Amino acid sequence: MIIRAARAADAEALCEIANRVIRDTLITFASAEKTPVQLRAMIADKGEDYLVAELDGQVVGHAYYGDFRAGSGYRFTAEHTIQLSLAAQGRGIGRALLRALEQRAVMAGLHVLVAGISSANPGAVDFHAALGFTEVGRLPEVGHKKGQWLDTVLMQKIMPQAGIPHPDSSDKQG
């Protein structure tokens, strides 16, 4: 298995992974499938912080992070996404992807990673807990998909290597 930065050429394989999750599961509340054009733009935007897992020459998973919320006060916090193909599940690939993403987050100066997990995906809660994430909240019935109301479980991990940044002029209120 190889963990590497995503490339534009990965867009088709990433669409297959993401669109299966969108179409066939309650893991994400998204309903619009992604296009290769959208994914190529996302890869270009995220650069080295968009990771893929490759197994036997095939892309079998991806992970990336993005803004948690708007506003400069949240700039040291990011929310991540991780998705695997069915063939990749249960093989340690998700763990390797998330560990690599955590390293990227630390290098980027992030202090906290957040996971927003569908209540229809208890395995993801267990997965994140095993990797040091703590459940910090549950938002009842904030998602709706396939005729069901679903909760979002919020989990977070404070990046131990990152530390707390020193205040700077962009922390001024006003």
TrEMBL record:
Write the record's keywords in alphabetical order, separated by commas. Answer: Acyltransferase, Transferase
Does the entry feature the keyword Acyltransferase, yes or no? yes
Q: What is the lineage of its organism?
A: Bacteria, Pseudomonadati, Pseudomonadota, Alphaproteobacteria, Rhodobacterales
Name of a matching Pfam family = Acetyltransf_4
Q: Looking at the record's lineage, which domain of life comes first?
A: Bacteria
**Gene3D superfamilies noted in UniProt:** 3.40.630.30
InterPro entries with a match to the protein in the record: Acyl_CoA_acyltransferase (IPR016181), GNAT_dom (IPR000182)
Describe the location of the N-acetyltransferase domain by residue ranges: 1-160
- Protein name as annotated: N-acetyltransferase family protein
Gene Ontology MF, one: acyltransferase activity, transferring groups other than amino-acyl groups
